[in-house]
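In this supplementary section we document a worked example of the pipeline. Step one takes a protein sequence of length 204 as its only input; no multiple sequence alignment statistics are reported here. Step two produces a three-dimensional model, which step three serialises into structure tokens for compact storage. The input and output of this example are shown verbatim.
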Amino acid sequence: MEQILPSRILQNAVEQLSILPGVGKKTALRYALNLLRNDDEQVGQFVEAITSLKKDLKFCSVCHNISDTEVCPICADQRRDDTTICVVSDIQDVMALENTQQYKGLYHVLGGVISPLDGMGPADLEIDSLVERVAAGHVKEVILAISPTMEGDTTCFYIYRKLEPYHVKVTLLARGVAVGEDLEYTDEVTLGRSLLNRTPFEDK
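The serialised model returned by step three reads:
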């Protein structure tokens, strides 16, 4: 039975907070009451941070990772190996791979995986921009670091076929990452070893 709150303003705050992943109505109520108890300056900083997140945060024009600037720090870092591109499905995967400290190349964030049931087709992902980067002729290897789910494998195969005409080396993470497991939840040691021991796509 849904709890009836004494204030419509509080009810609205709870409803908005509960749209966050993993936040139910009870947790949202605790968050709202906690904000109510904080002073105006703290709440103002919270609101400003959320507003800036939506208003000021950019997506890198090269790899589509999040950034404060037009080109993200990874793409702008001349010490990175720009002949290798690691393809991931989302931004959290970039963070997970960077935490391994085993990869020094560049990234390409697709923005999801091919999933017809969720209404996600190839045209909804940043696949064409990946092909353009490879077609420029400077890239030697593309690492498909996509979670080994049915949708992930479908996406990998689609990208592999799109890149075939360019004769670039295409590799997969070693199967230290369990089938069906999301990269962002894989421990850093396992993910790092899977990256270092990657295998050619055709040996899949």
